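Q: Structure tokens for this one, please.
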Amino acid sequence: MLAGVPGSVGRITAIYVASGRRTQQTVAPLASLLNLPPIIVPDTELGSLAQRILSAHRGQSVLIVGYAATVAPLVRALTGTTLAPVREDDYGAVYVISVPPLGSAGILRLRY
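A: Here is the predicted structure, written as tokens:
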């Protein structure tokens, strides 16, 4: 689903991944297919990740692969929306966040 975007509109331009082994294994096939090296984010830098993405990738499509404890804080930092904590066994949630140049960010929750 994430690799099949033709052309440049909507195509992932950067991949950020939490430092856990499972998150890196999850993103490895897609990163290889897109020929994008994942940027590993140490747990100590997760708090500043939203600001980094907003300043370095405005208008681009960025993939962030995290774990349960990282999802709600990142969504809050990017959108201002407070989510319920994500369960450790919830592997099927995908959050799509749209941050326009003007106005409020939007969030869409998908299940797979």
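A few notes: The chain is about 35% helix and 25% strand. The chain has one domain: 12-111.
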